[in-house]
Amino acid sequence: MPTLLFSLPLLNLLLLLLLSLSPIPVCRSEFTVVLPDSSALVDGPQTGRSDRARTDPDEQRAVYAVMAATGNAWAASIRDVCRGRWHGIECMPDRDGVFHIVSLSFGALSDDTAFPTCDPARSTLPAAVLALPHLRSLFFYRCFAGNPQPIPAVLRENGHVGPIPAELGNLTALRVLDLHGNNLTAPIPSSLQRLARLRLLDLSSNTLRGRIPQLKLPGLNVLDLSRNALRGPIPGSLGRFGSLLKLDLSRNRLTERIPDSLGDLGALILVDLSHNSLAGPLPTALGRLGSLRALILSNNSMASTTIPGDLFSGLRNLIDLILSDMDLEGSIPESIGDLPSLRVLHLNGNKLEGSIPRSFRRLERLSELRIEGNRLSGAIPFARETMWRMGRKMRVEGNAGLCYDAKNGSFEGIAAVSAMNYCEGEGSESKMDAAGESAKRVAPRKGDHPPSVSISSARDHRRRGFHRTVGVVAGFLFSICFFSL
After folding, report:
1. Does a cis peptide bond (omega within 30 degrees of 0) precede residue 281?
2. Is residue 118 within 8 Å of residue 70, measured between CB atoms?
3. What is the mean pLDDT of residues 32-39?
4. Which of these, 272, 238, 228, 339, lies nearest to 7 by C-alpha position?
């Protein structure tokens, strides 16, 4: 993944902030939170001491099994787990006065946390957890990392192996399903499409195979299937996820073209389809994503594909545009210069020809430009200030025909910064001093920081000029004084 000014950690923070505005909790790095909804329950504080209310017997047996599997067999001595509950279990009654388990929590978050502890070397999570239909929160902290096993529930970064169980589709009230960072294999079960209330689905960083199923999850906000071994096309059904904010299918083995239906996801903030084998042409339908901040399609070989000029007509909020290493041909569209928020632009590693559009001069927020390894020629349209701001983040090498127009302002040290020379016939208008000529002949070296080197060179030049001026004035005054004697 390239380093973006509107960085992906910052973008993920924005997505999580948007999610936090709804009643969905945010899963954090070493534990799991699951929140479905159970509207049939009495949604209010309960003491669990009612004389007539009792725990549902099937759910009580399931709790006993879960507790025993995590090394907490002492729970079996409690006759009614909701009436004699501990810190880490929460219950609510229904309208008939039957208690249902809505929350189970495990693991020592700190010395002050009284959740039941787990034995990480021997703890397992039995399928009995699926017999808790009213469960709203299932929380584990460092319970399974030392004992990888096939999983019967929703856990992230716990070292689990094997397939995703199809039975997860029975948890129809589930809001968050986060299984990333395990060793899960096999295809994604189509039963997940029954999770109609799901808001976040993260299966990234596993070894999942097969095709992405035709899911229908209209309330989904985040879909992350990156870093797997998924094959086949991107399903057109993703276009029905009208609430989707983040779509990350990067680093898989997906093929065929990007479906036009993705243009219907008007709420999208990030699209990352990089490092696949997707084919062209690029769909102009992506231009309808008016809320999009980052579009990352790099490392998809799309030979003989051009960049549509009207692709960017509606992307006024785009900050990061990454189209590198795609074998794109043709010219760079002028319309990219009409993206007022653009800060990062990567077009490197393609076969683009012609000149850099003069409209790029309007990209006043641009701070990183990579166009190296193309067939571009002509003058770079940026003003001197823009080039200083980008410094080494402006990469143009491998385009033998590019040059800097001195009409944009004399740019001392241009070769050291950008590996370019002045355009033919322009150098005479703005003579470069000896230091500038030296910099012009020096090829950029890895690790250099050209702005500081060039600025230092400019300061030295000004200092030498000042000393020469002082010397001339002093000599002149000395001559007057000498001959007046």
Report:
1. yes
2. yes
3. 40
4. 272
- The H or E element that residue 60 is part of is helix 57-69
Give, rounded to a whole angstrom, the gap between the first and last alpha carbons of the chain: 77
Tokens encoding 117: 């502890």
C-beta contacts of 205-212 below 8 A and 24+ residues apart: 205/180, 205/181, 206/179, 206/180, 206/181, 206/182, 207/183, 208/164, 208/184, 209/185, 210/186, 211/187, 211/235, 212/188, 212/249, 212/254
Distance CA 199, CA 183 (A): 23
Q: Which domains does the chain have, with CATH numbers?
A: 8-452 (3.80.10.10)
Q: What is the pLDDT of residues 259-299, one digit of tens each?
A: 999 999 999 999 999 999 999 999 999 999 999 999 999 99
Q: How far apart, in whole angstroms, are the C-alpha atoms of residue 104 and residue 137?
A: 6
If residue 457 lies in a helix (H) or strand (E), which one and from where to where? Answer: helix 450-484
DSSP 379-418: EE---HHHHHHHGGGEE-TT-TEEEE-GGG---TTHHHHH
The rounded distance, in Å, linking the Cα atoms of 272 and 12 is 13
Instruction: Tally the residues of the chain.
Output: 485
> What is the C-alpha radius of gyration for the chain, rounded to an integer number of angstroms?
31
Angle ∠(323,329,333) on CA atoms, nearest 5: 70
Place of tokens 């479905």: 36
Whether the CB-CB separation of 100 and 92 falls below 8 Å is answered with: yes
Q: Is the pTM of this model over 0.70?
A: no
